[in-house]
Specification:
Helices cover 76% and strands 2% of the residues. By secondary structure, it is mostly helical. It has a domain of 255 residues. A hairpin with a 2-residue loop joins strand 1 and strand 2. Helix 6 packs antiparallel against helix 11, helix 9 crosses helix 12 and helix 15 runs antiparallel to helix 18. The longest helix has 37 residues. The radius of gyration is 22 Å and the shape is globular.
Length: 520
């Protein structure tokens, strides 16, 4: 490894950091006396340009990644590249939706923090080493804490940021403690080296303790039960663009990290080039080694689906409703991550008939990306309504179809997609994910969990319809039109159009994902 290789692999992150510096210089040196709307527009467009530069950097990357001591530190291409492209597109979208925001006068600083947090997300998505993972997580997390507190005139923003910071600090401690145990047990910080060492020496009780600590730390990042308590307050109190960023970009990065860890560790012997006899031996022993890890994720997935959907039924704030919805969606995604087609029932026949590993990975990526795009659009509509009415309560959306028909149509498309109604993309995201889970095994556990997920998806339709009933059926209390900035409205319409088009042609996105790496 040399600095030229390091620069090549981290070129997208470098592009975002340079863009953050340019935003600060332009805003503080040249636009200090300009109108706030001008400063917001210029900063947002410069941030979008920085995301474009990072996308170009990803497109020209070659090779498999950055190696250190014969093990991979940062990956290039594959699922990591898919997640990085998704993070950049979602970041650019949140910046466009920020153009008509007035919650802060420190525009350059806000956009710079967004870009630096996004660079942490890019680092997480490609990391294969515990130290690199922790650095990326802290870069992303510190940015999110700051963004949550950026509305200085709002007491809710300060309260949400404090809660987010305290919970985040505890989760970072759990995560680092777990990482230290992995290093102490194996002598390595690389994911593949840890997996090979544990397989050769056998797991110890301390290994499972370390796994529980890591799951606790990452469970906070994805707002999975029981590590979800920060999410409703943060979603409600943070500025709307910051909440959209947390709900989308942070989730994509964190789920990709968890996917990378599970993909690296929960594998069968064929991925290490063993002969058939060794592979059979590896297969049966791997099931015993990793079964407790899988069980942990499945329990958290089931709890997240149940708590998220049932708690959302009682919400009167649309932001908090979206927070509990995010917890439920985290459960669905964890279900796809936990049940990998590698050694779930421990039979060789099962191995030969399983869905190829990358197919299940693709289903998870498909779900995460489409969910991130949809929830950004939902927060965009909430932001417009909130600025016009001063509240995000359910009754603030009364008669929206008459006050702004386009916003009402966008919200209809997005909420029905989140509920998984065909032919919208949310239906195909759930269909692909549940099909991958059932393709793993015909056993009772996958079938029961998918049945639970489908039943709770029906429950989710109820609370989404509670919002849509107020938007499209119930009369408005205030007849004044709600106006949206042309850029904001255009971005929301594009998001809704993408949800419809990708739902009508679901193979488009799946083929795009598969183009980043060879499907096994």
């Amino acid at each position: 490894m040399n600095y030229a290789d390091l620069f090549r692999v981290t070129l997208p992150e470098t592009a975002l950091e340079v863009a953050a510096l340019v935003v600060l210089v332009v805003d503080l040196a040249f636009l200090r006396k300009a109108a706030l709307k001008v400063r917001v527009a210029v900063a947002a467009l410069l941030g979008v340009a920085g995301c474009g530069a990072a996308l170009w950097a990803i497109s020209i990357q070659t090779g498999s990644g950055l190696f250190g001591n014969d093990f991979l530190l940062l990956t290039v291409g594959g699922s990591s590249a898919v997640a990085q492209v998704g993070i950049l597109i979602l970041t650019a979208t949140t910046l466009l939706l920020q153009i008509d925001s007035t919650f802060t006068k420190h525009v350059g600083e806000y956009v710079a923090v967004v870009l630096m947090a996004a660079s942490g997300g890019l680092l997480i998505a490609s990391a294969q080493d515990l130290l690199v993972i922790f650095v990326g997580l802290e870069l992303l997390s510190l940015g999110l804490y700051i963004l949550t507190a950026f509305a200085k005139s709002s007491g809710k923003s300060a309260e949400a940021a404090m809660k987010y910071y305290l919970f985040g600090g505890m989760s970072a401690a759990f995560l680092l403690f777990g990482f230290s145990y992995f290093y102490g047990l194996t002598g390595y910080t690389n994911l593949q080296a840890i997996e090979l060492t544990i397989f050769q020496t056998g797991p110890t009780p301390l290994f499972y303790v370390a796994w529980i600590l890591v799951v606790a730390g990452l469970g906070f990042k994805i707002a999975a039960v029981p590590f979800h308590l920060w999410a409703p307050d943060t979603y409600e109190g943070a500025p709307a663009p910051a909440a959209a960023f947390i709900a989308s970009v942070s989730k994509v990065a964190s789920f990709t990290l968890l996917l990378n860890i599970c993909h690296e560790w929960m594998v069968y012997g064929g991925e290490h080039g063993f002969d058939k006899a060794s592979n059979d031996w590896f297969f049966h022993h791997a099931a015993q080694i990793w079964a407790p890890l899988i069980t942990t994720l499945l329990v958290i997935a089931a709890a997240s689906m149940i708590v998220g959907n049932l708690a959302a039924l009682a919400q009167t704030s649309v932001r908090r409703l979206l927070a509990y919805s995010a917890i439920a969606h985290a459960g669905y995604i964890l279900l796809g991550i936990a049940i990998f087609p590698r050694f779930f029932d421990g039979s060789q026949d099962y191995l030969s008939n399983a869905i190829p590993p990358d197919h299940s990975t693709n289903a998870v990526l498909y779900y995460v990306l489409t969910y991130g795009l949809t929830v950004i659009g939902a927060f965009g509509v909430v932001s417009v309504v909130e600025r016009a009415t001063g509240s995000d309560k359910l009754d603030s959306f009364l008669g929206l179809h008459k006050r702004n028909p386009l916003l009402a149509a966008v919200l209809l498309v997005l909420f029905l997609s989140l509920a998984g109604i065909p032919p919208l993309v949310g239906f195909w995201a759930k269909f692909n994910l549940f099909a991958a889970v059932l393709g793993v095994s015909a056993g009772p556990v996958p079938f029961a969990l998918v049945s639970l997920a489908i039943a709770l998806s029906v429950v989710s339709l109820y609370y989404y319809l509670q919002v849509l009933k107020r938007v499209h059926v119930m009369p408005a209390i205030d007849q004044m039109p709600i106006k949206a900035h042309p850029v904001t409205l255009s971005a929301l319409l594009l998001i809704a159009a993408a949800v419809v088009v990708l739902g009508c042609f679901p193979a488009l996105l799946m083929r795009w994902i598969e183009s980043f790496y060879h499907v096994m």
